[in-house]
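Weekly modeling sync, notes
Attendees: S.R. (lead), two postdocs, one rotation student

Agenda item 3: backlog of single-chain predictions. S.R. asked that every request posted to the team notebook include the full sequence so nobody has to chase files. The rotation student volunteered to paste the first one in as an example of the format we agreed on. Action items at the bottom.

Example entry:
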Amino acid sequence: MNNSKLHLSDKVNYITLDSFNALLEYFDEREFRPIDSFDVNMIIKISYYLALRVNEALRLKKEDFDLELLEVDLGHTKTEEMGKATIPPDFKEELEAYLDSKSSGYLFVNRHSGKLIARQTVWKWLMEAGKYLNIPALTTPQAKTHEKTKTHLFRKSIGKDML
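Predicted structure, as returned to the notebook:
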């Protein structure tokens, strides 16, 4: 059996860790009217590290996180009545510092309107980043791939990275 580490490349349903990091850097260097770039990165990181759909990440409240048990209550999800996600131990410290910087309630709120950031808004940001960074999973139309990409991408990528 070959013990060499499996190396995946960007595909229409997966981004490499290098592309993930490039995406975070891209968002770090941008300004967003409704939300800080740091919050945009946390939407992406929480989606990736907790294997969430972006919509699930956008609905999270500070109170949903239990850092002692390393889990987050997702409430009603697409497939579960009371979903939970596991917080990876390696992400705990960064997540804890982020949560400490937030007041209670929803994490990702438009600073002008007070409304939750919409999934479509994140989709638009991901499309722009995908074009700039040439990431196929963020630019290939779903009609062509016949798979959910963009806002579902991080959920798929973390699983493959865990291999």
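Discussion: group reviewed the output briefly. Residues 1-6 have pLDDT under 50 and may be disordered.
Action items: rotation student to repeat for the remaining queue; S.R. to check formatting next week.
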